[in-house]
Design goal:
The two termini are about 15 Å apart. The chain is elongated. The strands form three sheets. A six-stranded mixed beta sheet has the order 6-7-8-3-9-10, with helices on both faces. Helix content is about 30%, strand content about 25%. It has helices at about 65-70, 95-100, 115-125, 135-140, 160-170, 190-205, 215-220, 240-245, 295-300, 315-330, and strands at about 25-35, 40-50, 55-60, 80-85, 90, 100-105, 175-180, 205-210, 225-230, 230-240, 250-255, 270-275, 280-285, 305-315. It folds into two domains: about 5-245, P-loop containing nucleotide triphosphate hydrolases (Rossmann fold); about 250-315, 2-Layer Sandwich (Alpha-Beta Plaits), CATH 3.30.70.1560. The protein has about 325 residues and is α/β, with parallel strands linked by helices. InterPro entries: AAA+_ATPase, ABC_transporter-like_ATP-bd, ABC_transporter-like_CS, ABC_transporter_ATP-binding, P-loop_NTPase. This is ABC transporter ATP-binding protein. It comes from Sphingomonas cavernae. GO terms for molecular function: ATP binding; ATP hydrolysis activity.
Length: about 325
């Protein structure tokens, strides 16, 4: 099954767009990339990105995230496939397509001796945009860079340099913004600031596509999540739907007395002893017709196993991701 076949048409929570009649702002079909030497970085990827959404491409390092972004942005030539960005073919109509796109690369590439405001103005000019001091000032203020506008890039911290990269990407007022591992190597406070900025940009109408291997980043920001591994797009789904569909729940019983082994009378349930025997853990599918929880509690009572407390929790996106990748490995 191709991931595109699994894309929902429902509007994403908080997304502010209607998926049912939404023309995709980016359409990717049959996209693959094989480098010299035979390494296949992408394997026939099909994907549609809706206008105004935040889409997170989630996968481990080396999964193909950066390759896909580089192709869409016209930096890398695909082996096969087609990319349409806001109605423009990225290969046949490169200039028109590229003006629609802003890219914040994973690596920090900029002139270390240039002033912050000069490098942002220069990036704007590269796309043929006339000078607009008020707009550039707004970008720098939004990114907490205005006070640093006359500083040379080399004088900035790593986090501030990444903010400059975002300012450069936004300088020509793109409708689509790609963020390739935007918070890699930055502190928690800066990461939160960037999350707030991304939501602000989406509110202004910019479509955001970010790649990340930080699960919390996708869970915090995205409307939809795509899972990519070894160049293959495993699944694309609404974040909430994905967690509901694939997320499992865990029931934890805090035992009154420590347990060294699971009694034979509880062999019908897949149980795990945790916390030095003080907890009994049971994982179940919350959407199943029979979860097994009521019968488990009755059986523990029949066996005289007392517990002081119980709680359930939903699987995190990280647990879902690990499960998807593990299942995929098992199919190979």
């Amino acid at each position: 099954m191709r991931a595109a076949d699994n894309q929902s048409t429902d509007s994403a929570p908080g997304g502010g767009f209607s998926g049912t009649a939404q023309v995709p702002v980016i359409s990717i079909s049959g996209l693959s990339k094989t480098y010299q030497g035979g390494f296949q970085a992408l394997k026939s990827v099909d994907l549609e990105i809706r206008k105004g959404e935040i889409f997170a491409l989630l996968g481990p390092n080396g999964a193909g995230k950066t390759t896909m972004i580089s192709i869409v942005c016209g930096i890398v030539t695909p082996s096969t496939g087609k990319v349409i960005a806001d109605g423009h073919d990225i290969q046949r109509d490169y200039r028109a397509a590229r003006t629609k796109i802003g890219l914040v690369p994973q690596e920090l590439h900029t002139d270390q001796f240039e002033r912050v405001i000069d490098t942002v103005n220069f990036s704007r000019g590269l796309f043929g945009k006339p000078r607009n001091p008020a707009y550039v000032e707004k970008i720098l203020r939004d990114l907490t860079l205005w006070e640093k506008r006359n500083n040379k890039i080399m004088e900035l911290s790593g986090g501030m340099k990444r903010r400059v990269m975002i300012a450069k990407a936004l300088s020509h007022e793109p409708d689509i913004l790609f963020l390739d591992e935007p918070t890699a190597g930055v502190d928690v406070e800066l990461r939160r600031d960037m999350w707030a900025l991304v939501h602000q940009l989406r509110t202004s109408g910019v479509t955001i596509i970010l790649t990340t291997h930080y699960i919390e980043e996708a869970e915090e920001m995205a409307d939809r999540v795509g899972v990519i591994n070894k160049g293959e797009l495993i699944l694309v789904e609404e974040k909430a739907t994905l967690m509901k569909k694939l997320g499992r729940k865990t029931l934890t019983l805090n035992l009154a007395e420590p347990m060294t082994a699971i009694p034979d009378g509880l062999s019908d349930w897949k149980l795990t002893i945790k916390a030095d025997g003080n907890e009994l853990e049971y994982e179940f599918d919350a959407n199943a017709e029979r979860t097994g929880v009521p019968s488990l509690l009755r059986r523990t009572s029949d066996l005289g196993i007392a517990f002081k407390d119980l709680n359930t929790r939903q699987s995190s996106l990280e647990e879902i991701f690990v499960g998807l990748v593990s299942d995929r490995k098992g199919e190979k």
